[in-house]
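Aim 2 progress update. The chain analyzed this quarter is reproduced below.
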Amino acid sequence: MNREKLRQTPCGRFRLGERWINPEANDIDGARVEAKSMDVLVALVEAAPSVVSGAALLDRVWPNVVVVDNVVYQAVAQLRKALGDDPHAPRYIENIPRRGYRLIAPIERGTLETRVIGAGAPPPAASLPSVVGRDGREHNDKHRTRIATFAAAVCLVAGLGFAFRTQIGVWMALHVAPITSQTIDQHIAFATTSDGVRIAYATSGAGPPLVMTLGWFTHLEKGLLSPSYDSAGQLRWFSRDHLVVRYDGRGFGLSDHNVTDFSLEARVRDLEAVVDALGLERFAIDAFSAGGPTAVTYAARHPERVTRLILLGTFMNNAFVNAVDPVWTERYAASNRMWALARTDWDKPAARAAMVEWVHPKASEVERRVLMELYRVSADGPTFANFAAVVPDASESARQLRVPTLVVAGTEDTELPVEAGSQLAAAIPGARFELLEGADHFETIGHDARVLQLVSSFLDEETRANGRRQR
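Predicted structure tokens:
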């Protein structure tokens, strides 16, 4: 029973255990899931009660597409969440070690629902009144023909719109959204590092400085065209009360691309150049993902300049790899293959699609395409691969930190396990650790409203402390 067959059942729905499933709407008892996750569920339904291997699911759901190996794991995790299933005591999807997944809940076909025409609904075509001309001839047929032609035209336009909905959505996100939405009023300038690399930085808002260390895959101008780049509105949010500083690290965005040194020392030089060019004496740092080790190292060296340190979805070194289960070992092996693919085939959409799947598996199809475009314009493949090849170690700096620090990790982060954040927080004296339930990597680094609230509250503590000192 494949997905097409399920769609041909009455109402396109079926019952799985206690849950109603609507494959056409990607709906599980009112909870929306990604289309690929629903395809995985349909494949398991088709094979039930047999076990389906991860490789078979990859071939079935992602044919002829290069993706990282953990996409099946993420799809099953999303299904379990929507089904309310416990992986340790499953009632719907059972994981058979080294073999795959099996559906264990009973399956029932849907039942036909009756559509009721309301009082305000138009009458059937057969009951249309006759239209009689002066010569006594009836024009019912001609009138009905016009209605049928108009209806066919509407259906054609609607069908084309549906068929090309992803392309239309991407085009609107890249071209219409920047025109119709409120833009960020930012000023772009350049600083030069001690080793001669030109770094682009942008400022917006006014107030106590907040320096954002973004990591990689950034573009100060074109990044703002993507709703995925700032879907939670954090730039506008923090620009209300702060002078927000962002910069493209070496090799990315508007900064110099002809570089090969992506060491931790080189990344710290980028940050130093920006804050020195702006003449910032004291400021908070909000570091995302790969920007974390850079921020930790800088703050340890210059504690007199850093008022607060926020570390979102990041790490201090790769020691956490040995502390997690074998699933993560497989994921990092897959990521190494992805870096190699980026080095040679970054111009191919499949390579960039694999990166999106790794970072933001929850992305809609439009978000995926927009992020793929952002990745394309922000850097070339060799730059990405060279950056990824460097595994910085900021563990010693973390232990030396004497700056108020907030560390945030997500429970569904597919790029970094929770252990990466917890080890980082444990190494920093007095650090506060917050765990975001259900957040993937993309959401943890600032694209979740909960992050904005956590960071704002943490920054407000400094403002209140300054107020008390002034009194």
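Residues 140-163 form the longest helix (24 residues). The chain has 17 helices and 15 strands. These observations will guide the mutagenesis experiments scheduled for the next reporting period.
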